[in-house]
Amino acid sequence: MIEIQDVTKVFGSGEGAFRALDEVSVTIRENEFFTLLGPSGCGKTTLLRLIAGFEGPTGGQILLGGEDLSGQPPYRRPVNTVFQSYALFPHMTVAENVGFGIKMLGRPKSEISGTVSEMLELVRMSHLADRQTSQISGGQQQRVALARALAPRPKVLLLDEPLSALDFKLRKEMQLELKRLQSETGITFVFVTHDQEEALTMSDRVAVMSDGEIRQIGTPREIYDHPAERFVADFIGDTNFLKAEMLGREGESARLRLASGQEVHARASEATASSGTVTLAIRPEHADLAPEGEGVLGGTLEDIVYFGTDTHYHVALDGGGERFVLRKQNQPDEDRGYQRGDRVGIRLGRSAGQVLRD
Ligand code: ADP
Ligand code: MG
């Protein structure tokens, strides 16, 4: 529904020119909770500002429902934005804030009061309608900002790190709340965050960005289980990287030889070469500890770190000392009896992990 085609954005010119977005292409579907995820400075806000129309692209185009948006000023686009700073008017009440935007659009009075009540109910703030916004909490201000942005019934809601100012517990609560709002209203959400857990838990699909480019687009599960390249595997979750030799590939199933001499199978995209040295990415929870001499890798336990829900085992692999981290869920009062310095084996699943694109 939102088609972003080869969009480039260059700030400045000549020597000082900076390419904030480099031929970015992505199609965001109707009714989707879509997330732009990436480290600070990778171009997330710039892409949102282009969709909103606060900036024009240097190259490429943006279509909404098949219609080219270029030349349409922000207020003419069926798009609204929620910023990190809620930007509420402190001298107005909650209800006045929610009604402000639609009043400016010239909607009739009767319609405005109806919409305001409806929006306040949607974000569960009806009981505070007459409170000044300077006298409500940060989480409540966030809800008012959401209600205000939803009031004109945009087709698309852009949310630029809207939860980052909230403390941990409130952020968790608002994550669920935002998901509920999205599915109840059916509005397409384009959500920006640098927090990988937030992206995985909330989104229908995620685009992982770095340095002005999209590195991978997929469902949270696709991106976590099958990261396409090292940046994605590293940025999202924890990953073990092993050098391995490619022995052959049939479709997406690859056969590899590890440094230990053992052979394993792993997933590899069709684009991966079928010979040569490659990098294998293995999630810490997708491996098991085994007695010495068993499994496909061997090493010495260097650290055992207890995290409550799980325990992390750090293994220095034989022959080179690469580190491998395993994560095992804890059972009540269970002690697996491992100690630092123990010699161990490492067992991998039938498919060991994902071969990364170079
Ligand atoms: P993010 O939101 O992912 O943190 P931004 O989109 O805000 O990143 O910025 C991407 C890059 O573009 C940054 O290096 C930033 O300094 C630069 N940038 C953003 N806006 C401007 C501007 N108006 N002029 C010059 N450089 C800018
Ligand atoms: Mg930003």
Automatic annotation (TrEMBL):
<keyword id="KW-1003">Cell membrane</keyword>
<keyword id="KW-1278">Translocase</keyword>
<dbReference type="Pfam" id="PF00005">
    <property type="entry name" value="ABC_tran"/>
</dbReference>
<keyword id="KW-0472">Membrane</keyword>
<dbReference type="GO" id="GO:0016887">
    <property type="term" value="F:ATP hydrolysis activity"/>
</dbReference>
<dbReference type="InterPro" id="IPR017879">
    <property type="entry name" value="PotA_ATP-bd"/>
</dbReference>
<dbReference type="GO" id="GO:0005524">
    <property type="term" value="F:ATP binding"/>
</dbReference>
<keyword id="KW-0067">ATP-binding</keyword>
<dbReference type="InterPro" id="IPR008995">
    <property type="entry name" value="Mo/tungstate-bd_C_term_dom"/>
</dbReference>
<dbReference type="InterPro" id="IPR050093">
    <property type="entry name" value="ABC_SmlMolc_Importer"/>
</dbReference>
<dbReference type="InterPro" id="IPR017871">
    <property type="entry name" value="ABC_transporter-like_CS"/>
</dbReference>
<comment type="subunit">
    <text>The complex is composed of two ATP-binding proteins (PotA), two transmembrane proteins (PotB and PotC) and a solute-binding protein (PotD).</text>
</comment>
<keyword id="KW-0547">Nucleotide-binding</keyword>
<comment type="similarity">
    <text>Belongs to the ABC transporter superfamily. Spermidine/putrescine importer (TC 3.A.1.11.1) family.</text>
</comment>
<dbReference type="GO" id="GO:0043190">
    <property type="term" value="C:ATP-binding cassette (ABC) transporter complex"/>
</dbReference>
<dbReference type="InterPro" id="IPR027417">
    <property type="entry name" value="P-loop_NTPase"/>
</dbReference>
<dbReference type="Pfam" id="PF08402">
    <property type="entry name" value="TOBE_2"/>
</dbReference>
<comment type="function">
    <text>Part of the ABC transporter complex PotABCD involved in spermidine/putrescine import. Responsible for energy coupling to the transport system.</text>
</comment>
<feature type="domain" description="ABC transporter">
    <location>
        <begin position="2"/>
        <end position="236"/>
    </location>
</feature>
<dbReference type="InterPro" id="IPR003439">
    <property type="entry name" value="ABC_transporter-like_ATP-bd"/>
</dbReference>
<keyword id="KW-0813">Transport</keyword>
<dbReference type="InterPro" id="IPR003593">
    <property type="entry name" value="AAA+_ATPase"/>
</dbReference>
<dbReference type="InterPro" id="IPR013611">
    <property type="entry name" value="Transp-assoc_OB_typ2"/>
</dbReference>
<protein>
    <recommendedName>
        <fullName>Spermidine/putrescine import ATP-binding protein PotA</fullName>
        <ecNumber>7.6.2.11</ecNumber>
    </recommendedName>
</protein>
<dbReference type="InterPro" id="IPR005893">
    <property type="entry name" value="PotA-like"/>
</dbReference>
<dbReference type="GO" id="GO:0015594">
    <property type="term" value="F:ABC-type putrescine transporter activity"/>
</dbReference>
